[in-house]
Amino acid sequence: MIRLVDGYFRLLKFLVVLCLATMVVLVFGNVVLRYGFNSGITISEELSRWCFVWLTFTGAIIAMRSHSHLGMDSVVSRLPVLGKKFCYVLSHVIMLVCVVLFATGSWEQTVINIGNAAPATGLSSGFYYGTGIFFSISAFGILLYDLWWMLSGRLQDSELIQVKESQEELDHDKLDQYQHEMESEMKKSNPSPDGAKK
Predict the structure, then answer these.
(1) Deepest of 79, 132, 154, 179, by most Cβ within 10 A of its Cβ?
(2) How do the pLDDT tens digits run along the chain, 198 residues long?
(3) What distance in Å separates the CA atoms of residue 88 and residue 9, rounded to the nearest whole number?
(4) pTM of model > 0.85
(5) DSSP string across 120-154
């Protein structure tokens, strides 16, 4: 199951890269063609906008899983453990409700626009609004899993605050996690001499 989830998030990262690369090629290519050859890519603006929307929501899912979203923890960090747990549960319940509302609205917009063709690409506009459904399903699963992890007592007290106040703090945490993973890999690949003797 863990491999399946990791594979899904690797696929999402690939989708982000693909959207970003498509945007760069379309926008840069269109600028070059327009100013250099008095021509252009007809679908450039529309497809770039769609890629940007998909990139934004896909990136939000990836950031949600790794708890990389920025936020304010100045109040919650000063609460006792019980207060932090209460705020954790409350915030996750509120986010779950918001995701359900967002999914409902996205579904309605997708159904309304599924028969409407975009003017430049001719693709269904439902594909554009479908990003909300895609985001909502993934975000709901992540939030539900995090909430269950906390209620089952598996979440450590240090993990009760899952937002970072600054990008520097986020980068520092990622560096610590990377160093920890590298040390674990080194221990696996190079067993200790004492262990080798035994």
Answers:
(1) 132
(2) 778 888 888 999 999 999 999 998 888 888 888 887 877 777 788 888 889 999 999 999 998 888 877 777 777 777 788 888 888 888 889 999 999 999 999 999 999 988 888 887 778 888 888 899 999 999 999 999 888 888 887 777 666 666 666 555 555 555 566 566 666 666 666 655 554 444
(3) 24
(4) no
(5) TT--BTHHHHHHHHHHHHHHHHHHHHHHHHHHTT-
117 pairs with which residues across the strands?
A: 124
Contact 117, 123 (CB under 8 A): yes
Matching residue, tokens 């399946």: 4
Q: Are 43 and 121 in contact (CB under 8 A)?
A: yes
Tokens of 74: 């100045």
The one-letter code for the residue type at 14 is F
Q: Each residue of 40-63: b (16+ CB within 10 Å) or e?
A: ebebbebbbebbebbbebbbebbe
Number of residues assigned to the chain: 198
- Cβ atoms within 10 Å, residue 106: 19
* 138-128-29 Cα angle (round to 5): 115
> What is the distance between the alpha carbons of residues 104 and 140, in angstroms, rounded to a whole number?
13
